[in-house]
Amino acid sequence: MSKIETRGLRVSFGQTQVIVGVDLSIPDKSITALMGPSGSGKSTLLRVFNRLIELYPEAKVSGEVYLDGRDIFKMDVVELRRRVQMVFQIPNPIPNLSIFENVALGLKLNRLAKSKRELQERVRWALEKAQLWDEVRDRLGAPAGKLSGGQQQRLCIARALAFQPEVLLADEPTANLDPENTAKIEALFLELKKDMAIVMVTHFPQQAARISDYVAFLYKGQIVEWGATRDIFTKPRHQLTEKYVTGRLY
Ligand SMILES: Nc1ncnc2c1ncn2[C@@H]1O[C@H](COP(=O)(O)OP(=O)(O)OP(=O)(O)O)[C@@H](O)[C@H]1O
């Protein structure tokens, strides 16, 4: 069964429809890349999956979205966002808060650790999972803002992983990183997909080719093509997809 499934999903901002009837399946334990030109609706689609879209009062959503077969619009939003975590293009730790507290805060606010010891264990577990522990173990009390950009992004991933999510949404997570840090995040995602579904927006077809299992190609709010990554790159069925993956459509 799909981890996430949408049926007839539509989103509009005021009079403008930006997602126009999307039917999409996100398989579990794999990386699905959302590709498409600027403004095609990739970020909007991602924001529906954890209902972040509801923070935009002008956004109107209709259609169906299921997580493990359950209607996300009927779920408790706090539960949904715990299970479906998100990381963004610009790493957004709280810069003055310590490395430890950045990961611990969400756990504390949601009362997910029963003791100080459990909290420490979960923070360490998340930092290890995000492959950051070895770099920060001696300075957990230092402000997060002192970390490099790549480290800050892995800290944000650790913060998300602390909730032990089932789905990780990533909106261009490497767009602001150099090739070395990009490679680290890509390797990390390949590890993480063993435990969860990852949905990643990317502007780089090469990145989708390197790490995704499936690609959904969006154009003007519609899914033009969806399938196994290899098929999308080697035998795209639609001309628009072919143009995009060969760098002739932006
Ligand atoms: N809060 C908003 N109010 C009005 N229009 C919006 C809002 N957010 C997004 N849009 C519009 O919705 C459309 C889809 O935007 P979205 O950010 O989802 O596209 P995208 O594919 O992620 O683009 P990019 O690759 O440039 O990030 C765009 O035309 C955008 O202008």
Automatic annotation (TrEMBL):
Pfam families: ABC_tran (PF00005). InterPro entries: AAA+_ATPase (IPR003593), ABC_transporter-like_ATP-bd (IPR003439), ABC_transporter-like_CS (IPR017871), P-loop_NTPase (IPR027417), PstB-like (IPR005670). Gene3D superfamilies: P-loop containing nucleotide triphosphate hydrolases. Signal peptide: none annotated. It comes from the Archaea. One of its GO terms (cellular component) is membrane. Residues 4-245 form the ABC transporter domain. One of its GO terms (biological process) is phosphate ion transmembrane transport. SUPFAM superfamilies: P-loop containing nucleoside triphosphate hydrolases. PANTHER family: ABC TRANSPORTER I FAMILY MEMBER 17. This is Phosphate ABC transporter ATP-binding protein, PhoT family. It comes from Pyrobaculum islandicum (strain DSM 4184 / JCM 9189 / GEO3).
